Each structure stands twice: as structure tokens, then as C-alpha cells.
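batch_manifest entry 22 of 60
target: Carboxylic ester hydrolase
source organism: Scylla olivacea
requested by: lab member K.T.
priority: normal
notes from requester: please return C-alpha cells only, no post-processing; we will run our own comparison against the previous entry in this batch. if the run fails, retry once and flag.
--- input ---
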Amino acid sequence: MAARASVCLVLLGLLGLSAAADLHNSLINSSTLEVNEPRREDKERKIKTARPRDPLVVHTNTGLVRGFRRNVLGKNVDTFYGIPFAQPPVGELRYKKPVPVTPWAGILEATKLPNSCVQEPFTYFPGFHGEEMWNPNTDLSEDCLYLNIWAPAHLRESGARPSEVLVWIYGGGYMGGTTTLEVYDADLLVANTDMIITSMQYRCGAFGYLYLKMEDAPGNVGMYDQALAIKWIRNNIEFFGGDPDRITLFGESAGAGSIAVHLLSPISSHLFQRAILQSGVVNSPWSIMTREKAYDIAVKLVEDVGCNATLVTEDPGTVMSCMRTVDAATISLAQWNSYLGLMQFPSTPIVDGEFLPDEPLDMIRRGEVKKTEILIGSNLDEGTYFMLYDFLSYFDKDESTALTREQFLEILNQIFKDWSPAERESIIFQYTNWDNPDDGRANEKAAGEVVGDYFFVCPSNLFAQLYADAGGKVYYYYFNHRTTNHPWGEWMGVLHGDEIDYVFGLPLNQSLSYTAAEKDLSQRIMRHYKFFAATG
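--- output ---
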């Protein structure tokens, strides 16, 4: 860790920042994931007449919902899929802030996984589970603002003390992701911890972050989606046996970046108590952009889908009318025209002056942040996954590659293309194996470390230090276990997202090939999350 810390100091120093060396580190370990879920078969939700005293019917503030029960590791877990928390963001509501759901009559059958929000799936490696496990497994639709709840059955049946509540926010670079993935099935986590787990869908890509300097496209509506879902959970979780005063947000990648925004937001920071940030913070280079850049990207999208960008300022009403009628699939594909290379996604949160009032690090330095307990960390090899995708001609997903010195330099020069020559040379110097600069394996490893350090490790370290300086309490983990049944090549190491298996208890699924040690590791991590949610 000492070498990695010195590298972060170099990167942060070049950005005019300083990282502290006294972070409270505790080592954990990691892997990948799986579990089976029923697919949503019905496009319309079923409303039925209530049966008296049905133990699976819950009376919420917006209506009755009926879930289903499963026995998991000898414990009954009640699951509720697809509870709406907002009106469908379609038609006139496309690109706008979410509107709270209208209460319904009768019983909503919450037994089918909800739609996934519109996005582009990954198709680089067809048929490869390591990639396809992250692709949406339910219908893509703009009608996607639903949440899920997993709860121990005994909490409502016995009148036990209300449980801690964890709210999962998925990652996907703000461009994709879905809470319906098999790896996010929370029944094993619930059965092992006796906590309530919830998760929500939120709009991604242009549907969630289009910014055109107007109320019809204000940007950050994906963040408002999350906030509205958290508010619904806070207002209703007691009916499922949860404690609204013990809500902990947990998320990975863009989900963790989102949580960092919630810690800073006057709109949502009061809705939860604690936060767990896995491999993501808002100050990561991929996690935030200026309003100016977001506006330019939005104008390009307007032009690319045929809505006449020259009218954006002269006749915004006509432009937005057009943008609301363009087919969602067309927008979903066209937005990627503004992808500018490694981790430069065209949709992210912005400093809008409302949900996010100011530059995140400036706010933290001024103490304008929710002061609570956070658990934050990163994985051993955060960069290899993204490096592979953006430099496919250089790497093989299954086998290690001897990376030439020229290829190594090209990767670094692309990442830091907007930096000065002196800054780039400093980074190249830091990551070069000077005993043998032409060592292909060493170059491959160093390139992965550059990507991981710059986009994940160093920003997380800095966020943690500044948060502690501001008066928050910080616990830091470093996940360094490679799963024995890992689908990706050995050279890729402990990938971005590998810890998720263990957080959700996948090694306890007897149908999967995990070792006894990995089962124990998962149980320990779940216990840590339980204790953290309970007392910080």
C-alpha cells in the first residue's frame, strides 16, 4: 500500500491537491456474482381484490402491495418487486424531475421484476458470462421508476424491533445498470443479517442527465429519481419492519459516486443516516462534469437526433417538443457519439446549484457536507476492466499480454492528453519499471495501475481524507481477494465490482463454486455491513 499511496500523492499533487497518509485502512477481500430471478412477463401491473389478513400484503402510504415469500437458508424472506415511487417519466415528463406516484386502489402485485431503464447493453464478447451478467435482464423502457424490497418475514409477524435498512444504488457509469440483475438479489444478504434491503431504478444516460439550461432539461434528474425513491423508502419502510432512522445507502461505482452527491445535497442528505461507497466518489474524473460541457454534449445530441440544435436558444419549446417525440432507442444510441474515450462518459451529475450546489471538494473543505459515518474503499485492480474495453487491440480478456513500451506510453498519453507534457512525464516516470522499461508484463500491470489509481483509488483516498478533515468518521477498506471461479482472465486480477458477490452473499449459494474460505469471507463482510448500519 505504501507504493500505491506514493503514486496517489503524485497524481493528486499534479492536480494541485494533497492526500494524507494516515487513512484508517482495514484489509478485506473479494469476487464476482450470480443468482436467479424471475423475469417480468407482464407489461401491465395487476391489481387484485384483497384477501383478509394476507401476510404478504403490506399497506403503504401509496397503496397496498403484495409480495412473495421464499425460504432462504432456513429463514423466510419476503420480497416485493416493482413498487412504483414515481409517475412513469414518459411523454411530457421525459427529461424532467420525477413526479411522485399517484396512490393506487386495490392490491398491487409486487411479484415481477420491473423494467430496466433505457440503455445500451455491452456486446463486445457475445455469450461471455463475465460481460453479460451486467446487461439488463428485463425489458428496457422509459417506464422504469420502481423499487424493490427484501425483508425478514418475522419483523412484521412478531412485532420485533425495527431493523436496519440498506438502500442499494447500482453502478454503470451513469449510462446504464439495473437493480434487477441476479447479482443484486438481496435474499441471501437478508437471511444472513436480518436487515431490510431495498433498491431502486433510476434514469441513466441522456434520460437522466440531459442539460439544456431549462426546466424541461435541467440535468441531474437521475439524482432526483434516487432521492424520490429514498424518500418513499423512508416514509414507508416501517410498514415492512424497517427503522426509518437507520437507513444506510450503499452502492458501487456510479452508485457510490451518487451516494457522495447525496452526502452533499440539501435535497437528499437528510433522508438517510450513513453511507457505504464501493469504488466510486463524486470527485472521480468520470463522475462529474461542468455545466458547460454537459450543455455542449446535450446540444450535439439534439443535432444528432434531428431536432435542429440552432433553435436551442431561440425556440427551446420546439426543440424539447421534438426531443420528447424522438424514439427512446434512437436517443440511447446517439448519446454515445459523445463518448470521448476511457471513462469519459457523456452523462454524469453536474453542479446545478440546486441538487449539487457547488464543486464537491470545495463544499467538503468548507464543511458543507453531511457529517456522519462512511465506509469507503476500492479494489486491488480497479483499472484492468476499463483498460481492456478501451484498448481491445492491445489486450486479451483471457490471457496476459506483453505490452510494448510504445503501447504503454500511448495509453498514458491518451488518459492524460489534456495535461501538460511535464505532468505526463512525471506520471510516466512514476509508473515505469526502470529496471527494464521494455518488460511487457510489467508494462501491462503498470498501465492497469495507472487507470485504477487515477479513476478510482486516488479520488477515493482524497474524498476520505477531506471528509475526515471536515468532521466525518471514515472507515476505509481495500479489497484484494480474487475469486476462485472468476470468469475474467487471471491477469485482470481483482476487478472493479468484484466485491459485490461477497456483499450480497453469493458464496453462500450452494449451486455456485465458491470455497469455504470465500463463504466465510462473505459472511464476515455482511456482518461488517450489519454492524456499520446499526452503529456506525
